[in-house]
Design brief:
The protein is of the alpha+beta class and 190 residues long. It has two helices and nine strands. It has two domains: 11-69, 2,3-Dihydroxybiphenyl 1,2-Dioxygenase, domain 1, CATH 3.10.180.10; 95-168, 2,3-Dihydroxybiphenyl 1,2-Dioxygenase, domain 1.
């Protein structure tokens, strides 16, 4: 694994998302996914709540609830559907999806477990370096296996497992820039 020469980072402390219904969020993240609810906060002046769920490895997924939060816009605030089943596009600055690392040996078992709990899951995707980026079958070039599902607010989630170590050859693409975008960008306010 590569090391960070600038900062000693230990992973993601928490990722903060927005919920439309905190009780339903607790029911899903603790009840279905088994993540312990470890901290709850009522924000000052009735402006909302902030709850934290332990997602393993010292990391948390947190949710804000705001009484006046705008409704989500599929395809803008998050993808409109799951990978392989429709559009994966979301807006610049949006959170496209959250991937949770799971053990390789339990990957398929966990997919079955979610299906048994009534969660709609995507097909298994074996990500590789082919032009389609996905292989039907496992082979030595597959670097991660994953499947996707959504929480009650449509937030795209993923269970993923690395299947091999990365090498220097895995960093080989020229980064795109803002000039490469095809959408019409809004002019900056004067």
């Amino acid at each position: 694994m590569a090391t960070n020469p600038e900062f000693e980072l230990g992973g993601i402390n928490h990722l903060a998302l927005v919920s439309s219904d905190m009780q339903r969020t607790i029911d899903f993240y603790s009840g279905v996914l088994g993540m312990p609810l470890i901290k709850t906060i009522d924000l000052p002046g009735g402006s909302g709540q902030h709850f934290f769920f332990d997602c393993g490895g010292g990391d948390c997924v947190a949710f804000f609830w705001f009484p006046d939060a705008p409704d989500p816009v599929p395809g803008v605030s998050a993808p409109a559907s799951m990978p392989g089943e429709g559009e994966l596009l979301s807006a610049v600055g949006s959170m496209n999806h959250v991937a949770f690392h799971v053990p390789v040996a339990k990957f398929e078992q966990y997919r079955d477990r979610l299906r048994d709990k009534g969660v709609e899951v995507s097909p298994i995707l074996n990500h590789d370096n082919s032009p389609s980026t996905v292989a039907r079958e496992m082979h030595d070039g597959v670097f991660v296996r994953s499947f996707y599902f959504q929480d009650p607010d449509g937030i795209l989630l993923e269970f993923a497992c690395w299947t091999r170590e990365f090498t220097d050859a895995d960093v080989s693409h020229t980064p795109k820039t803002a000039a490469d975008r095809t959408v019409q960008r809004h002019a900056a306010p004067a």
